[in-house]
Protein 1
Amino acid sequence: MNTLDDKLSNHIKAVFEELDTEGADYGWTELRKNFPVKSNYRPLYLWLSGIAASLLVAGIFLFNTYNNNALKNVIQHNSITKAAPVAPQKTDSNLDKPVTKKVVNSFEKRTVSVKNSKKNVPLNVVETDIMAVKITDTVPVNELTENVISPLANVAVAKADTVKNTKPTTLEFLQKENEKLKKEGKPLLATTAKSATESRKNAMFDVYTATFLNYYADNPVKVNAGAGFNANIKINKNIYLSMGAGISETKITYQTTRPSSLSSYSNSAADLALMNGYVLGANSIKLNASFLNIDIPVAFKFYPGKSGKYYFSTGINSSTYLNQKYSSSITGFNPSSNSYSDFKGKTEESNFNGFDFANSAIFAIGINQPIGKSSTLTFEPFFKPSLRGYGDKDIKINTAGLNLKLSLGGKK
Amino acid sequence: MFIKHNASDAELIRECKKGNLKYQEMLYKRFYAYAMGICMRYLINKDDALVVVNDAFIKVFNALHNFKDDLEFKPWFRKILVNTALDSKRKNLKYVYDSEIPEVHQQTMYPSAIEKLSAADILNLMKQLPETHHIVFNLYEIDGYSHKEIGQMLNIPESSSRTYLTRAKQALQKLIQSDLIKI
């Protein structure tokens, strides 16, 4: 039997010693498609462009939001002013002194504008509008001289003492205006206050720290941490757009289910073990990936109900990398000495390289806890399933964790 | 650049260590048939075998700087080929417990019948064996690994490796016998 086994083994060895001698040229052509490996290094300017583009988008969003709010306030104010063009008629004595009294009346209105301007209303825009309204309503065109206009243009800004002197008149005027508008159901002071509150609510800023677990498939779980900030921009009553930037450390070890993009790292360790006469086990290879990354999350927050005590959030996260490091190690078995040894394989590291758009999705629930008048502490458990890979090797990482956020600039 | 077409293995390896692509091509073509012979036994399918052969060559080119000049290239390359073939197989390998391994009765095998087997015949026979059986048979009988080593490589007990081998041999004998009857 043993002789026959040997005969069979030897025959198989002999038959397969040299096989398919014809296909070498084709085989080499196929190999050349993957060898030598083309560098996937992305130049620094691409990396910087990615960051710049993200910041630009964020900047445009913020700029537009603030500008819209400011314009909204001006429009609101102007419509109120136009709806009550009666200020000059209120004090009969003013009519006796055609030019100067008209100036005072105009000034009073402009004083109102100045007050509003303290609530983030652009000064020049308001003043110009008021001038136009005022002149049309009260001054005949033929009486409109440079003498009339120029003191008006300067008085509110330059002559602070004059402003101080007219303050009681202004207050009186405001109260009267307010009473009148109240009757119409549009109180001026309430509107202004409301607009200021809205302005505060329209943009909130969060600073956060995050603790999270990185894992993929049945590989070991790693604990990591990060920190950053977010700006929350109001889209409508219940929805905010949240975007920002954070820095985090992301580490993962692959032991069982390994990404093919890291096979060269495992191979180098395996080859080293083999060369030293070691035998490799099925799960003896460990591949480590570690990133120091800047995350750029963009998410929509949905606040169900009016209380604003909690919200649901969903969006995408993009990342750019300050540092990427890939390495491998392998445990080999030496049958002759009946012992195990660890071998370190290839290590690769790169800095300031790579930008991955939408590498993971974001799903989160936020629970708000008010602290003080304009601050909120938020507990935000989140889950970020991998959409595309991380880093140059496109490796998949799922993340689950908790954000602890301090929101500044108002409450929802 | 002058290319020495009849360069020895040692010269080829020396040039390949420098990353010389022409010499790498020569090394590839010199050892291609050898590599295919090993990988075909494990992969059975020619396309799959070529993928593994190329993977193994890329490993060799990348790791050649670690290769000591006083060692023989072929045994080192064989280990890399076998390991790469096993890596590609591992995902599909489903280990059968001892109790589930089918019992095959001893067959009488004629020595003359063995000599008639071509590479295609052998591959056809191997294809009919359970995957783990034919891998263990290859590792032990052809490539010379011990049961202890096979146990480590496949993450199975040493005793299972012995059992797989016995069953693989019995199954092969039976298959060879039945094929000869057909002929």
Note: Chain B has nine helices and no strands.
Protein 2
Amino acid sequence: MGFGVYGGGTLRLAIPAILLGFVVGIILGLARLANRPWIHYPAVLYIELIRGIPLVIVIFWFWFLVPVFIGRPVPEYWVALTAFVIFEGAYIGEIIRAGIQSVPRGQVDAATAGGLNYIQTMVHVVLPQAIRNMLPSLVTQFIVLFKDTSLASIIGMMDLTKAAQTVSERELRPFEMYIFIAVVYWAFTYSMSRFSRWLEIHMSPERAS
Amino acid sequence: MIFGFLGMTYEFRWSVLWIQPHLTWLADGILTTLRLAAISWAIAVLLGIIFGAMRTVPFRPVRSIATAYVEFFRNVPLLVWLFFWYFGAPEAFPEVIRQWFIHHGIEFWSAVAAISVYHGARFAEVIRAGIQSIPKTQLEAGISSGLSVAQTYRLIIIPIALRLIVPPATNESLNLLKNTSLAMTIGVAELTFSTRQIETYTAKAVEALTAAALLYLVICLSISTVMNRLESKFAIPGLIARGARAEH
Amino acid sequence: MKRYGIIFLLVMLVLSFTGIAAAQAQSTMEKIKNSGVFTIGVRPASPPFSFINKQNERGGFSNELGMLVHKGLEKKLGKTIKLEMKETTPATRIPLLTSMAVDLVTETMTDTRARRDSVDFSITYFVTGAQLIVKKGSPIKGAQDIAGKRIGTQQGSTNERVLREKYSKAELVTFPDQAAAFMALQQGKLDAYCNDGIQLWGLKYKTPNPDQWEVVGNYISYEPYGMAMRKNDSDFRAVVNNALMEAIEGGVYFNLYDKWFGPKSDVPYPMAQSTKDFLLLQVVPK
């Protein structure tokens, strides 16, 4: 039924979005904790702004603005990807920040005492521990992002949700179609959350609830 | 004011937001958003308390039903649920009921159904975490005092849990509010819909979207400020919300 | 912080002036002559006007008319000009035109007085208007019957505006796209769906049984399609209009119409006699 194409559309959006969002999140998390006000405040502003508005608005923003800036119409994929990275990056930034703050201060002190500079401390000592601590939350955010990719169908991108719409219009059996798509999404996300539980148990058994 | 950048020109005209009927559309949009959010929130919290509590009782079948509800509804994107409740579910109802709904705002009520059931599942998780962070001794004490399980839950456990979970509950409530924006896909004339409409009539997308973003921000910030105040008022000294982690 | 802000504003100011300046530098004819390229604005998926077929070629009624204009341009300038087709959407077509990225918008664009503030239009090359599509046997026979009924429209369409202004007693339900609206109509959630007549005929013939649906009513709104170009460019406009007039006069236009909208095509859209007269009368004597 061609679902491979549509499912591929969802994954094609979700996977780059999570990777790029992760990078943005690290930058934002670090910026949020920075001492210099001209790094700290823009980061705070950005995060608070994004968290106060719906993803749909962000998608529409980019849908209208990106072509104006670039000078030509842009395929929905790039609009959606940009919107997702900008949006999810803010949420991931908060997770990373919490992760960094959960690393005991003693680690940073020991690193400095050992002669490492800021970047080396971050890259080799703090971030690895921070990310390990926040791994369950990060996987949760990936699941959230995966579900949010359904919004790309609003601007016409071919993903699983659009597939359900298209087929149900053709075959005129919306009830069955949407239940079927619900099950497909459920299969993906349920297995991801099972994986998250597994990760939690195997990586930090003492912390699993 | 004209804005030229790399090949296209855009002319700003903020006045489009003030003239009628655009202002009315924005106002109606905000009201519909708030109405949709309020009604869905009430139902979602109710569902959340019921199913969240059900997930923690010592009876396996009750727990399983609740787990099925939660895991099924929250793992599927809200957008799919909106389409299901608008295009799919009504077909399963008898003609008479369908016709009644069609003439009484079926778009709005389908949105209410979709949003409240979806967020009900998410609230259930938050409440479950809250209940599970209450020491088991409370439940035991209640039962040994002669209360039934149901009474213990109703009189002791749930009131405590509700006060514990204010931060993640606020987060979920704000998510619900922001998710009302999706209702525009089934024709509900809420705030995002209104801004798109202004954009259609005037081609001034930037102004309209900025207005929407600001309005959502204001509403969200007001709610979280109020909830923060409530949290300090209701905090139970000595009981910290452990494990009340925000679920997806 | 303040320093960066001021620099940013200055940069924006400078860039905005370059934008306006570029827009008024040359006339279109000069630009095409100098660059040797003629760019028209088209849509990727708007059959039968403008679309990309399975072989990745561009085709459609509007595209072919654009090609006729191209030939007229070559004749007038006396040299070969390359024809480029650039994708536009309703949101981007006017900005692309004013910034000279596109010379002529040939996709389906309604000629309105409000739009004439921003662009100039060629003569009308297609006439349609908003109508209603209903289930066969519906009591609705036209806009006069829609008071109190649920009428669907597409978000972002001029039809919604017209209905709201002229028929405020109808209950309007607006959907993000035509497919969702039509599904609601099929399920009985709508009594009728409103869009340009030509779109409705296309919709009707795409359903499994077209006989179940009727397009009814006089034109609720008048939608004359014209090709849009930059303002105050009379030389270019004359060339475009001449090309169109020659096509109408010589019959090429009607052949094209028959190819895309005739009885044997995918979307039969019979041309009213008054429309045919109107098109012929637009052709002024040589």
Note: Chain B touches chain C through 30 residues (CB under 8 Å).
